[in-house]
Amino acid sequence: MKNNLVRTRYAPSPTGLFHIGGARTALFNYIFAKAYGGSFIVRIEDTDIERNVKDGINSQLKNLAWLKLFPDESLNNPGSYGPYIQSEKLSRYKELANKLLLEDKAYRCFCKSSDLQKQREESLNNGQTPKYSGKCRNLDVTEIQKRILDKKEFVTRLRCEDKDYIWTDLIKGIISIPSSALSDIVIFKSNGFPTYNFAVVVDDYDMRITHVLRGEEHISNTPYQIAIKEALELESDIQYGHLPIIIDTNGKKLSKRNLELKQFIEDYKTMGFPSRAIINYMCLLGWSPADNVEVFSLAQAIEAFDFNAISSSPSTFDFKKMEWISKNYFQAMGEIEYIDFVTPFVHIENSLFKKNHNFCLLMFKDQISYASELNTLVGDLFDIKKLTKKDVDAIVDEFGEHTVKTITDFRTNIKKIDDWNVDVIKYIISDFCKESLIKGKNFYTCVRSVVTTKTSGPELFKVIFLFGKESTLKHLKHFLDTAEVKKAKITNVSKAAK
Ligand code: GLU
Predict the structure, then answer these.
(1) How far is residue 260's CA from residue 267's CA, in Å, rounded to a whole number?
(2) Which sequence spans correspond to the domains of the chain?
(3) Under 8 Å between Cβ of 289 and 301
(4) Ligand 1 centroid vs 173 CA: distance in angstroms?
(5) Which atom of ligand 1 is nearest to the CA of 225?
(6) How far is the CA of 45 from the centre of ligand 1 (A)?
(7) Ligand 1 centroid to 25 CA: how many Å?
(8) Is the sign of the CA dihedral 172, 316, 15, 116 positive or negative?
(9) pTM given for the model
(10) Nearest Cα residue to atom 6 of ligand 1
(11) Which of 189, 202, 382, 458 could lock 363 by a disulfide, CB 3.0 to 4.6 Å apart?
């Protein structure tokens, strides 16, 4: 169903950097808007001035662009419903808060924040939900005038009606919040800024937002937002949908303080994840297409979007799963695309690497989940230690009595190669295995251990090609020279035993 009146928004507060939770909210709003041919709006909610962080706005906008979630309207590309940042709209909020004061739907509260804090703590200690006592609810007009003249600080509170708030949530179904859970909420602060709940309602209305999709932690704000909307008599049929919370693999709510878990979009960008993979993985945080296919593009997600398929139970953020999704994207890339993508992330000062740059990187194309992984993988390849006597003995012990003969014969075959290229080496290896009947681990792992000093790595013929003829022969010879000592020893021991 197309409905170009659909207008969704992502409304980050720049109190932190762009995080997986925020990005998931942005993504679902984007997908929903695009699925209906509507508009996706980004609005900066910066009214909590003490908590705003440097680079907070930039981190949101820059990384949204990296994810290619381009807003139809935002601070950088304003439409007709701006400003797109709340600090530039203070007079509008003030005007509406004053209107509510005039209509006696709101009142001035002169209570000191230290007293309110004390009451809060007392309620919590008694196991009760903290609520405003209502002390200033019915202050006498002359008393109010006097306090204003005395320049006493005040906040503006909405007179909350004694009624339950019920709405049909697009994701959670019917939600009902009893009046007993609500109290007169602050809508305007003493510092001249509106509160989050007040500004959000004004902006969602001013910007003609039709659907609000946001994290479940905002469910408790929704009745207040409905109450504010009703008090302001704003006519809108805005619908709310609350996305499931994101938990970690231990079942705990994702916390930005958990530094062990990479959760910031900037981190993934720096590590060299393709943004398409991150988008794909974030789609799975709460929703999956009906056919259970897990790897899909943003366009496919938009095509398949269905509210009924969004889960209302917690979504688990599993970094390993994200790596797996991302691996699929590297595997699907063309070679040129892959090289172009990963090259800026690789910083290896090794002449052999520089000489065989693309070849080295391509060796790991099917293996990596993010580009900077290549620094370790390629780096390890060149980190070759000379085999010690102990290493050589261990190799002979592991691969058996034929080891020395295998390496001797293989060396003879390698020596014969004139035209050093991957195809020839590949052929020589398979021919050798066929002729000698030594195969599998006894050939591949054995030769790899001798040539690379490692038991695993990229395909053997590629590694041998990369190291070059001279170096490969040198390693094979070193092994044989060292193994000779062992052989000699064994012979002497068996002679002595006779
Ligand atoms: N500024 C709020 C936040 O960052 C937005 C909440 C909402 O979407 O209403 O959590």
Answers:
(1) 12
(2) 7-83+246-319, 89-243, 333-382, 389-497
(3) yes
(4) 21
(5) 9
(6) 7
(7) 9
(8) positive
(9) 0.90
(10) 11
(11) 458
**Token pair listed for 106:** 């709101």
Which ligand 1 atom is at minimum distance from the Cα of 217? 10
Q: Look at the domain 7-83+246-319 and name its fold.
A: Rossmann fold (3.40.50)
Q: Under CATH, which architecture does the 89-243 domain have?
A: 3-Layer(aba) Sandwich (3.40)
pLDDT tens digits, the chain, 498 residues: what are they?
Answer: 445 589 999 999 999 889 999 999 999 999 999 999 999 999 999 998 888 888 899 999 999 999 999 999 999 999 999 999 999 999 999 999 999 999 999 999 999 989 999 999 998 998 888 889 889 999 999 999 999 999 999 999 999 988 999 999 999 999 999 998 899 999 999 999 999 999 999 999 999 999 999 999 999 999 999 999 999 999 989 999 999 999 999 999 887 777 788 889 999 999 999 999 999 999 999 887 778 889 999 999 999 888 888 988 899 999 999 999 999 999 999 999 999 999 999 999 999 999 999 999 999 999 999 999 999 999 999 988 889 999 999 999 998 888 999 999 999 999 999 999 999 999 999 998 888 888 788 889 999 999 998 988 999 999 999 999 999 999 999 999 998 755 555 555 445 444
Task: Count Cβ atoms below 10 Å from residue 429 Cβ, excluding itself.
Answer: 20
Could you tell me if 439 and 461 are in contact, meaning their C-beta atoms sit under 8 angstroms apart?
no
- Segment (H or E) for 472: helix 469-497
In the reported structure, the alpha carbon of residue 456 is separated from the centroid of ligand 1 by a whole-number distance in angstroms of: 48
Q: Residue with the nearest Cα to atom 5 of ligand 1? A: 11
Q: Which atom of ligand 1 is nearest to the CA of 215?
A: 8
Q: Do 39 and 6 contact (CB within 8 A), yes or no?
A: yes
Mutate to test the pocket of ligand 1, among 200, 211, 224, 246 (most ligand atoms within 8 A of CB): 200
- H or E element that contains 10: strand 7-10
Rounded to the nearest angstrom, the distance between the alpha carbon of 12 and the centre of ligand 1 is: 5
**Fold agreement (89-243, 389-497):** no
Residues in contact with ligand 1 (CB, 6 Å cut-off): 11-13, 45, 200, 214, 218
Q: Tell me which residue has tokens 């004053």.
A: 98
Contact 93, 199 (CB under 8 A): yes
Residue 96 CB neighbour total at 10 angstroms: 23
Residue holding tokens 């009146």? Answer: 5
Given CATH 1.10.10.350, say whether it is the number of domain 389-497: yes
Residue 216: DSSP 8-state: G
Going from the Cα of 136 to the center of ligand 1, the distance in angstroms, rounded, reads 29
Q: How far is the CA of 262 from the centre of ligand 1 (A)?
A: 22
Å from CA of 439 to ligand 1 middle: 61
Closest CA to 484 of 385, 392, 384: 392
